[in-house]
Write a structure and sequence with these properties.
Elements lengths: L3 E6 L6 H4 L3 H13 E4 L18 H12 L4 E6 L2 H11 L4 E7 L17 H7 L6 H4 L6 H12 L3
Parallel strand pairs: 1-2, 1-3, 3-4
Helix pairs in contact: 3-4
Length: 158
């Protein structure tokens, strides 16, 4: 079997430097890299990348993927918010990918009439950094008190 190249397009809660401290992430990356050449990168606003003042558009974030893919033709593995970026990249540049893998990808995270469970940008900004989002993405890491707080926040709405 030919050795494949995959570019991992991570979700919005990602930071390569910290990921290597988490045994679950280390095992996931080790297993992936055992079957392919794995390309990892921090997107803008995450990890050690340059900070920007406002949330970049999906098209701007997809440019981060394009910058990595300028150097290689690879399969894109998009998870969480990395899914929409992978989809957009593959639609714009189908000749530059060999395959696409999506895991836990979302069509939309923001609130909209057709996505009433989404969160408004204002609500996300207001609650960011307070631990409220951990329950949405990693409930198994929460204490029982934290789980009760998450349930309470969900009951109050966005």
């Amino acid at each position: 079997m030919a050795h494949l190249t995959w570019a991992l397009v991570m979700g919005f809660i990602s930071r390569l430097a910290l990921g290597h401290e988490n045994p679950w992430i280390v095992r996931f990356l080790e297993r992936l890299s055992s079957i392919c050449r794995l390309i990892l990168f921090d997107r803008r606003r995450t990890g050690r990348s340059n900070r920007v003042s406002a949330m970049p558009t999906l098209e701007k974030r997809m440019d981060d993927v394009r910058a990595v893919m300028d150097a290689v033709v690879a399969a894109l593995f998009g998870y969480s918010e990395g899914g929409p970026m992978s989809i957009l990249f593959s639609a714009d540049y189908p000749q530059r990918i060999s395959a696409m893998i999506l895991h836990a990808a979302m069509g939309r995270m923001a609130w909209a009439p057709d996505n009433p469970c989404g969160r408004t940008e204002e609500a996300l900004e207001k609650s960011w950094g307070q631990g409220q989002h951990l329950g949405l993405y990693a409930q198994s890491l929460l204490s029982n008190d934290d789980k009760a707080m998450v349930c309470s926040l969900r009951a109050r709405g966005r």
